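Let us begin with a simple case.
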Amino acid sequence: MRGWFAAFARDDYAAGYALQAPGFYAYDNGKRFDATALGELLRAAKAQGAKVDWNLHDMDVHVACDQAWAAWVNTGASGKAGAMTPVTWLESAVLTYQDGRWRMAFLHSGRVAAPN
């Protein structure tokens, strides 16, 4: 998981996509993103000056043979440089072990509501 986020943080989209299983999709921001669509959305946002910082912690990982699922808290920030807004996401993923490495088959990300 950390490798996938790190690849996108350093704008290495090919490395991020290589960590996705065939048929990968994600639920994020109330929408479904197939294959490379989430990465391309991030790429376009960064081209417009957006910045996203991620910090994955409180990992809960369960492995059974060539399948795994993980859940974690992701605290960070997003926005334009100099105007970053703190964000917390609750996230989970399903992974499959293929070709000697773990690959993400599914990702779910939901923002935690900001405190009132």
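The second case is a distinct protein. As before, the sequence precedes its structure tokens.
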Amino acid sequence: MDLAWVASRLNSGDRKLLRRARAMSRLIDSTVQTVRKIATELRPGILDQLGLFAAIEWQVEQFEAQTGIRCSCSIDCPEWKLDNTSSIGLFRILQEILTNVIRHAKATEVKVAVGASKEKLC
């Protein structure tokens, strides 16, 4: 906001300085968008709002959109309730798995499946 205020008060005769202020403003906007994206990827709101399984589906969709790698997601335990710490941990594990797919697997397809028995989530 301060930069916008300064830019609005620059003398129109100093076009070089005005261009520089506008470039700085674009850089700041880009940085804010990047920080928001990083924050969302680290802890998406959907994880808190709709739970782990919806967040897994969302992450798989995002991965497919970003990489072009065909993805499928099957969740066969929607009744399972996990505490916040476990949900975050499992979500981060999924993120790391998908990162490793990009870096190492040379995959053309990814299948994410979540299932459960009485004692275990798989």
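Helices lie at 2-9, 15-42, 45-50, 52-67, 84-105. The chain has a mean pLDDT of 87.
Keep these points in mind for the review questions at the end of the chapter.
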